[in-house]
Design brief:
two-stranded parallel ribbon, two-stranded antiparallel sheet, 4 helices, flat
Length: about 110
């Protein structure tokens, strides 16, 4: 599972531009797709607007704002405390599971409000 990131938007942010440009996200995604196909798998892509970082992996509550400087996710509803990236990874894993349970129905997994 990979996220469809808004790289062009990230390049407009002065603080992120150099790091994002150096990372070569397009090449990484191309390589992942190639290697996944080579090994007989499929690369799942999460929608650009799927709130993987803002959603609580415990209770599914969505936080309205979560600045990049906040590295620890704290759920206001259930009190779950996790590293921001670990929380996002758990949400992406759950998204893959839901897609496999409902393979033809992408709207059950997420739709932008």
């Amino acid at each position: 599972m990979v996220e469809d990131l808004n790289v062009s938007g990230m390049l407009k942010n002065r603080r992120l531009a150099r790091v994002v440009a150096d990372a070569g996200f397009g090449e990484i995604r191309r390589q992942l797709a190639y290697k996944t196909r080579w090994n007989g798998g499929t690369l799942e892509v999460a929608d650009r607007w799927f709130p993987s970082s803002k959603t609580c992996s415990g209770c599914q509550a969505v936080t309205s704002k979560l600045p990049l400087r906040i590295r620890r996710y704290v759920c206001e509803h259930c009190g779950l405390v996790l590293d921001r990236d670990e929380n996002a990874a758990l949400n992406l894993a759950a998204l893959v599971k839901r897609r496999r349970e409902w393979p033809g129905d992408r709207k059950r997994t997420w739709s932008r409000p």
